[in-house]
Fold:
Amino acid sequence: MLDLNILVGGEAGQGIQTIGFVLGKVLVRSGLQVFADQDYESRIRGGHNFFRVRASDRAVRAQSEKVDILVALDSRTVKLHKNELKENGLVILDKQALGSDFAGLQILDIPLEKLAVESAGDKITANSVAAGAVLGLIGGDPEVLFKVLAAQFAKNNENVRAENLNAARSGYDYTAQRRPAGFIKLAQGEKAGPNMFLSGNEALSMGAVAGGCKFVSAYPMTPVTSILEYLAGRAKECEMVVIQPEDEISAINMVVGAAYTGARAMTVTSGSGYALMVEGIGLAGITETPAVIVLGQRPGPAVGLPTRTEQGELLFAIRSGTGESPRVVLAPADVEDAFYLTIKALNLAEQYQIPVIILTDTHLANSMTDTPEFDLSQVKIERGFLLADKEVSLLTNYQRFAISESGVSPRALPGQGQVMVAADSDEHDESGHLTEKAEIRHRQNAKRLKKYEGLRKEISPPRFIKRRGAVVTLIGWGSTYGAIAEASGLLLEQGIINNVLHISEIWPFPAEFVSEALQLTVKSVVIESNATGQLAYLIRAETGLSVSGQVNRWDGRPISASFILDQLKKGIIENGRRA
Amino acid sequence: MAEERKAVSLTENDYFSDIEIAWCPGCGNFGILKAVKQALVDLQLPPQKVLFVSGIGQAGKFPHYLKCNMLNELHGRSLPAAAAAKIVNPELTVIAEGGDGDGYGEGGNHYLHAMLRNVDFTYLVHNNQVYALTKGQTSPTSDQGFVSKTTPNGAHEALNPLAVAIATNASFVARGYAGDIPQLSRIIGAAIQHKGFALVDILQPCVSFNHINTYQFFQERVYKVEDEVGYDSADRLKAFEKALEWGDKIPTGILYKVERPVFEDSLWQADGIPLVKRKLNPQIAVHLMKELI
Structure:
């Protein structure tokens, strides 16, 4: 099995992302499955950034810390990552620029800047030289690289495009002639019908478009800014209005205003921004207004680690808001989930007239993977009790908050026919006008919470890998699925039979399913990117069952299969104490 | 269409709401309610096409007392919601509304940016210079030295909302007085007709909690800029000067008015079909996938 790992490292501003992205795309086009992630600091120049590309002939859905090729654009990259090199791992660097003090490492010295100047007349193309050099080293198909580069520079002028192709060719030729014997060699040719290569944020943005979102108002914040930028740049073709307001409070209230008036509306933010929006969650709850809020988690508290990842806001999302009102929380596991669950969020928001929170994180937002094109014929727009113009014209005494069996009332829009639509942030009667009467309050609050009955049926069951003779269940939620599934396979190879239970549609909580699954194995371990074990807590609260162990990571770095295995070895497998 | 068949002209009764009014007898809000109804009648705007978005406070209750579409928002948040409503359905006449605490205190940031953004809707501020719903605390517009339960030593410098508005180049800046219904209804009518964000700050005596800025106080001081020969509401510096005037004489009327591009012009403009009436078609995402291969 091929498991190729490339790490490109250097300072911010050195074009690391371009090299990594181009390589990832070439590997996808070459028929491999790819997972790429990036690690960067909250700065524009300098510091240390890296981009990892992992490719395999089997599914890879998480990063690995074991590196085959380390592309070092500065000496700090060598220092920081040399211990991640595999036994035959190789470092590509320019000794002219970085010196030659790299004892004990297998170095492929390549004069990146010199080749750039010679082949393209500009040292700025050194990162294309580097991309070519990596591909030459692994014997990839240069034609695929040229096609990808041509597309990458499609918006630049012809000269820039040609220069970068020349630069890539010179890098390719240089290393192709200097390949160490027996080093990884890729098959040639381009795979027909290649997959998309995209990030979680791109998938989520596309889900918003396909799901009929027409209005987005959002304040820039890592890790969701790229959603705002993606949609703003395509607003016209996607028939959408995208606004950057003065703050997150404005964003959520714009979403409520747009949705009350009848447009599917969404906002995106991270923890601190979400904290500012929380009053709006209660507003959407009591005015029964559909609203989709993307909460891209990053490590807190407060500003925390702005560019890193964490799953620290599960309980916050579930419990956020003034008073008590129904909501749904969906936590996509991967890019495919990010697409389809965004559509589901837009549908559920309108079907149940509630806020729906999409709980993602930096890891999913920024990491990229290959996936087949999404099947748009599967996408259904469900608008629930939104009344058609004709239905509205037959109404005589319209009541926006009429008591109903399901808790959902027929929804007319302002300006639609002869009815008038009243919605109030105060408690109100069926007509939407404010009241303080105890019995009406009782009925309206019960009506709103009754929506949970229907919502419970809408929640799809968790992913469940069930094996005969399993001794332990690995449990997770959200973006950790790839790492957990990989860890599960590795454990199996070691003879430890295990089940995997992974929750994406997390609120209302699928308590019955989880409860039954947990009772199939003696041991169960919850794996999550936070310190306090929020899913473990939620399982206890919702099922009355305690898991036997926890693996937590809260240093801001994504969980990987080897991290899980190391932790399990320390705790559960060796001394059994943690489990 | 039923609407066209009923081509009889609209009267104030068409805006009558049977909800019991919870304001104190003599409240300035009654004058504002009357003036709004007159303006809507003058413009013959059917209540079904009018959307009021209000904040929280005594003024925030206003839309309940008028027959219209209404979204009673959170405290201080009427402006973002009103802007969004207008953007997604430009066929609605959108009027945001609230008090001085709601708009100039809690919603201060939205106030600034609504004026800069210039979405086409009207903002009525019931400015009674005191927090009335919470029973008599100081407000951003309370006169300096105003003694209240939370400012026993007197309030600090007051916000001048009109000066701030003109500083942001807000496209329509007016002051009305709840005690002069004919002028107020004319101003509100002009504000609704103005293309862009239109601010109407309304002097609204609070009979329960503000014993300084009373009907008598204003009666003795207000005068109309339209009565001043040669007053040019397009003159920004002159308007700013008027906005600073507060004391023995208090100007009312349209202080400043300028034609500026509205925010909607900067947005993708389709074939004139409002966003709320567009068909939702998943296939619109097809080409996005091709980009990523």
